[in-house]
Structures are given as structure tokens and as C-alpha cells.
Amino acid sequence: MIPREGGSMVRCYVDLGEVPAGDRSIRATTVEQLTAVANSILHPYSIDVKEVAWSSVYEVGQRLAERFEDVPADAVATRTPRVFIAGDACHTRSAKAGQGMNVSMQDAFNLGWKLAAVLEGRADAALLHTYTAERQAVAQDLIDFDRFWSAFIAQPRLDPAHPERGGVSAEEMQSEFARQGRYTAGLATTYTRSPLTAEATHQSLATGFEIGTRFHSAPVIRVADAKRVELGHAHRADGRWRLYAFADAAGERLRDFAAWMGEAPESPVSRFTPPGADIDGVFDVHGVFRTDHHDIDPTSLPEILLPHSGPLGLQDWEKVWARDPRRDIFRERGIHADGAVVVVRPDQYVAHVLPLSARDELTAFFDGILRDQRAAVRR
Ligand SMILES: Cc1cc2nc3c(=O)[nH]c(=O)nc-3n(C[C@H](O)[C@H](O)[C@H](O)COP(=O)(O)OP(=O)(O)OC[C@H]3O[C@@H](n4cnc5c(N)ncnc54)[C@H](O)[C@@H]3O)c2cc1C
User: Fold this and answer.
1) DSSP state of 205
2) What is the DSSP letter of 53?
3) How far apart are CA 267 and CA 284, in angstroms?
4) 372 lines ligand 1 (CB under 6 A)
């Protein structure tokens, strides 16, 4: 039973038990029958149902589609997918883990930015294969978790007088629930090594931004107006890659990196931003300084950190950040004294961690994902 808004509303899950395969009559279960079953479960307590806002009969099935696209596994090298499925259409499990909506929306987010990149000519269609590769593994993982969790919470309560009868204590249940918290919050996904998820060679430069996992936000101070903001709130669901350049002590390496990123002909911005697009149209570059926000003069920074963009060409002042002395992001996320670049995918997963000086490696990483737009101009 889950309390709902309004003080008098409650959500009840009522276990109707197992039904023979193919038996559809269970779907016709009425509200009165549901109430009677709930009361038999709750006995010697009871509920008096005054009004039902919504009810449904849900059949738990732990099912996973073979592919989330129309291309069979043995034809991936020769065919590009044209049809995709997402959410409950390709994976179902019990409602008990509170994961279905989370995972379904993440499927769509994963697919959406890839489709946009391919349709707008920023990436080759091969990128679309990574959708099934990434999301099917997540769905399988979720079903495995669901099997474990469904069996765990279905155990009877442990009788301390008869431990030989088995069961689980309230304390064990509570501690297991807390342990699974990251899962229930939808934060347990870790993408494995692929063109979109780099080798963890430089992970030690930013230990709190684990490659393959969701970007873990922390507060920072926005230099332009001294406002305390969660860095993760800089993310927009707009299909852009985010590069967070975390500074060295003096901030010089960060400035060098930002200047290179915005101006060098071999930088990802120069190579992969389509002609005519905003300078931050593909890569949204942010600088996070170690110093107090009073010590930074944003007007002295390279253009990529203060770009003129958008339909009106207005200057964007919201890409330069300073350490929040009350909660230091550098300490909380384990950023190395020499700084680091944290590359975040459009769907908010950390794709790479690199030194501020690793220019070739950064360009090579994007070379494996995005189309060189200079070649497009020459064609
Ligand atoms: C009782 C219950 C409790 C749940 N609790 C949680 C929870 O706490 N947290 C959580 O994260 N998830 C929860 N879930 C799971 C979550 O609701 C689903 O995983 C999620 O809604 C799946 O989204 P979807 O878009 O893939 O599918 P759906 O939400 O099922 O959307 C599919 C849509 O397609 C429509 N449709 C079907 N056929 C056609 C057709 N031929 N033409 C046009 N339209 C069609 C349907 O009407 C529906 O609107 C719960 C599920 C249930 C049943």
C-alpha cells in the first residue's frame, strides 16, 4: 500500500496469485473482487473502499525482446536499422521495483539523440546499432534484478522463535531496500566499453565521474551572477555533447584547452560542427575553476566559454563556473590537481575522462562517433 496525495487516497497492489498460461478471465476481475482479496490478505485488519479512481489488472511477465530494432544480430554489419521499439514494448517485469517508466524513458532518450544526429548528418547511421547494444543489456540487467527482488520480498517474515522455517527479518528487508536504492532511482546503469564509452585509462583524474554511468551532479557557483547552481542543471535534452573542463590550480591549462577547442582547426568543434551552425551547436563546453568566483574575469576567457549563439546571436554567460566553498565539487568528485576534461553524452552518461592536455585523444574519440564536417564542405 502506497500513500498518495490528498490525504485520503492510497495505491494498493493486490496479488491475485498465479493463473494458468493463456487464462484471460483474470482480466475481468472487478473492483469488488479486488477489495475482497485485499481484505483477506489484510485480515484481521480490513479496508473500507469508498471510491476507486483507477484500477487495472496487470499480468507480471519477465520478457525481453531479442532485438530492439529490425536488424537481426547476424546482419548488423550489412544493414542499418529502420524500425525501433522502446519501453514496455521490448521489456517487461514486475511493477514492484518501480523501474519500468524510468527504463522506458531512458530507452527513448538513448534513441532520440542518436536518431537526431544521424538525420541531421552529424553521425553515420551505424551509430543507431548502439541503441539495441546498450539498452538490451540494461533491460536484461533489470529483469535479473527484478527476479532477485521479487523473490526476496515474497519471503515470509522471519519468526525469531523458529529461524529454521526461513524468512526475512524487517531489518534485512530494510537494509536490502537501501542497498538497492541506486537501482530503484534508475542510477544503476553502467554502459560498457564501446565507441560511445571510452576506456577508463584516465579515470583517476575524476574518480567521481565514473565512465559509463550517469553524470553525478554537484553544486558550483555561476561566475556571471554568483548564483549557486547544480552543475547537472546545465544539461539540456538538446542532443549536444557536454564537455566539462575542470581547472588546474591556476586555471591556465583550462584556458589553453578552451582556446584550442574553439579555435584549432583539428579540434572537435572545428571538425564536427556543421558549417553555419553555432560554435556551441554540437559541443557545449563549460569551464569549472578552482578559485573563488570573485577571482575570475569571464570577459578574459576564450570565446567557446562565452559564445554568441542562438537565433539572436546573444552572448551566453552560463558556461563559466567556480568552486562552491561550502561543497567543493573538486573534492567531492575527486578531480585531480592538474584538472580534467569530463565528456558527457547528450543523454547525460559520462563517455570519457581525459587530461586537459589530451587533444589528439579527444578528437580521436569523436572521430569514432561523428562525421567530419570539413569533408562535407569539400564534397
Ligand atoms: C500497476 C503499475 C505500476 C507501475 N509503477 C511504476 C512505478 O512506480 N515506477 C515506474 O518507473 N514504472 C512503473 N510502472 C511501469 C510503467 O508504467 C511502464 O513501464 C511505462 O508506462 C512504459 O511506458 P511505455 O511508453 O513503454 O508504454 P505505455 O505507457 O504502455 O504506452 C504505450 C501506449 O501505446 C498505446 N497503444 C497501444 N497499442 C496501440 C496502437 N495499436 N495504436 C496506438 N496506440 C497504441 C497505449 O494505449 C499506451 O498509451 C508501473 C506499471 C504498472 C502496470
Assistant:
1) G
2) S
3) 14
4) no
Q: Which whole number is the average pLDDT over 10-37?
A: 91
* Fold (topology level) of 63-184: FAD/NAD(P)-binding domain (3.50.50)
Contact in structure between 268 and 242 (CB atoms under 8 Å): no
Query: Which is the closest atom of ligand 1 to the Cα of 92?
Result: 19
Q: What secondary structure does DSSP assign to 255-288, as a single string?
A: HHHHHHHHH-TTSHHHHHSPTTS-TTSSEEEEEE
Sequence ranges of the domains in the chain: 1-59, 63-184, 203-378
User: What per-residue confidence (pLDDT) applies to 61?
Assistant: 81
Judge residue 102's burial from the number of C-beta atoms within 10 Å of its C-beta, 0-12 exposed, 13-18 middle, 19 or more buried. middle
Q: Rounded distance, CA 356 to CA 338, Å? A: 8
SS3 51: coil
Give which of 361, 358, 341 is closest to 350, Cα–Cα. Answer: 341
The predicted structure's pLDDT at residue 19: 86
Q: What pLDDT does residue 376 have?
A: 61
Percent over 90 (pLDDT), the chain: 77
Contacts of residue 120, Cβ cutoff 8 Å, sequence gap at least 6: 274
Closest residue to atom 21 of ligand 1, CA basis: 101
Residue of 125, 330, 370 whose CA lies nearest to 248:
330
Please give the distance, rounded to the nearest whole angstrom, from the Cα atom of residue 201 to the centre of ligand 1.
40
203-378 folds as: Glutaredoxin (3.40.30)
pLDDT of res. 379? 46
| pLDDT over threshold 80, residue 183 | no
